[in-house]
Every structure is written in structure tokens, then in C-alpha cells.
Amino acid sequence: MKLLNVKAVLDREKNIQHAECEYHVIKELNDKTRSYAILSHRWEIEVTYEEMTGLMKLDKWKKDEVRNRRGYQKIIKSCEQAMKDGHKWLWIDTCCIDKRSSAELSEAINSMYRWYQDARVCYAYLNDLDESTFPTERKFETFDKSYGWPEWFMRGWTLQELIAPKQIEFFNKGWAPIGNKRHLAPVLENITKIPCGVLRDGLAGKRLSVAQIMSWAADRKTTRVEDRAYSLMGLFEVNMPMVYGEGKKAFQRLQLKIIRRSSDHSIFAWDLHIPRTGGVLADDPSDFRDYGNIEKVEPDEFGDKLIEHIELHCLGNPCYIQLNSWKVSTNPIHQCRLAWLKWRARALSQQLRTFTVSNASIQDWVWLPSI
Fold this sequence. Notes:
Layout: E1 2-5, H1 6-14, E2 26-28, E3 37-40, H2 49-53, H3 60-67, H4 70-84, E4 89-91, H5 102-118, E5 121-125, H6 157-163, E6 168-171, E7 177-180, H7 185-192, H8 196-201, H9 210-216, H10 227-230, H11 249-261, H12 299-313, E8 320-323, E9 326-329, H13 332-351
Parallel strand pairs: 3-4, 3-5, 5-6
Antiparallel strand pairs: 1-2, 1-4, 6-7, 8-9
Helix pairs in contact: 1-4, 12-13
């Protein structure tokens, strides 16, 4: 993991006119043992790894052009905030990945969720928010290109950058503090539809369905269509190689990866917004937009809930007698129906447990219960 040396970056900026000075502003370190801060932001006119490391070697015109970019000012402001908070190292995706290397880019994208998760603090910079508070309702006149919310909330990559870090500090356009993720969780839930529990404590230990997580990404956008899939890998704990140019096939590959590691059938709970012919996999996260309320239940639990519902609503109104702590039906027909239903539910729970995929396609048919 390549990290910015916060002090070196700020010292170089302070002595930028002294061309003879050489500063090692980026160093490769072990992210598992090194403490660092991390930045989450919307891309503007940014500074590359090559420009950041070779700034002092550029001619005066090019050096001034780089330093006047919004992306460079963002780096300096982030370093100043990190220095103020006592952090020596900082990671920013624009200049800490040498994108000339496809191997390094692929490794970074596959590691990014973990990098945000392990950071001591994440600085979330909202470059289009003038106020020092988040809007509590959509403002289409102010944020007309992002469904009425600040654009940071509508980008694909910032979804994992919101969920993964334990601590996030938000800043507005002028780097004035807005607040932290834990205290702002109810406001953030209103904007993103992500439950407060996930925002405060992450995904660990939560019984979240695939469809529910997909629904959080439904209205988010990415510049490259493939990044709609790549930006979700960390949320589903899967890895896969980057193949830019494959288009929507990337999202198909992501779903097959998820199916290989999970028996959650809600991955098939999606809806067509544009009519098409094809298989059982969705084309895009937007297909899951209306399925954020699907809860994940274990097969046995599903069988129990199904029996309870059918007994209550479909088997009539039997008479019961109390026998010690048991309620026993006095209707023999009801008893027979209930016994058959319990047997059927046990068989059902076994069928719901697993399904198989190959590299080519989903092999087993998708079984939907009906009684």
C-alpha cells in the first residue's frame, strides 16, 4: 500500500520554490501494521501518482498548473487535517495508485474495502456542499445532477467508503467540519436508506440480504459501467480480476461470485425496469431498487414462519384444548393438514439451502416454494 507522508507533502509545499530540495512524499508500507488516515471524495481535475512524485522535476509552468488544480488543493487540505489530528500517513486514491500498472490498479481495487475499513479515520470531502449541515430533504435546485442530494451520496465508489470505515469525519466545500458518521447516522439513513446499525457498526454480524445491499447501490452512478460491479466487491466479500471493456458482464460475474459463496436466494429478487430477454441474473443494481425490505432468514426459520402463517390464515379456525403447556387441536382434519405441512416444510428447508454454479452458468434450477 502506497501512502502519503503527510509531513513531507506539507514541507515540500512550503518550500516549493527551492528546486534543489528533494522530498519522498509517497512510500510503500505494510497497511496491516501502519496507522493511516484515508480520504473519500468526488473526482475533479486530479493529480496522478506520477505528477505527485515528480512535481519538483516539472518545469515552472507545469508545476504551477498542477498545484492550481482542485485535486492538488484537496491533497494539501487533507494532509493539513491529518497533521492536525496527529496522523503521519494518508491514503488518497488519485495519487497513491500508479495506474500505469494494471496489476497495481487491480490489487488496489480488490483491497480498497479493507483499506477503508482499517483506516484510523476517513475524511469525507463533499465538494458541492456549501452549508455545514446535510440537507434533510432533497434539494433539486441545488443538486440537480444527483437526485437532490450532494453528489458524494450518489456515486458508486462512495457506498463502500461510507460503510467500511469505523470513523468518518465529513467536511463541506470549504473544509468546514459537518460532523461524524455515528452522530449523523439518522440523517445519513434518510439520504442513503442504509440502516443506522450498519452505518454505526458496519456489516459484521448483520443478517442482511443480497437484495437489500444491492438496493443501496440502485441510484448510484459510476463513470465506467464496469465499476458498478467492481465498487460492490468489498460489500459482498468477493474478489475478481478487473476487465475494463467487458461492460455489463462485470455485474454478471459479480453475481456469480456472490452465488458461489452464499445460498441467499434474494439475489434473484429483482425487477425489470427495461424489458429484455435473458437469464435469471440482473443487469444492474438498479434492478434491485424496490427490494430493500427483503430480510434474510435461515431455511429452518423460513419453514417455521411459513407454517405459522398458513396455520393462522389458511387452515381455518380449529378448536384447541390446553394440555399442560401444549395447545392441542381437537380437529383431526386440521391435525392431518398441520402434520403434512410440517413434513413439507422440512423438505422445503433442505431444498432452500444450496444451489450450484459453474463458470458458464447457474446449473441448478431456481426453486420457488408453492403450497
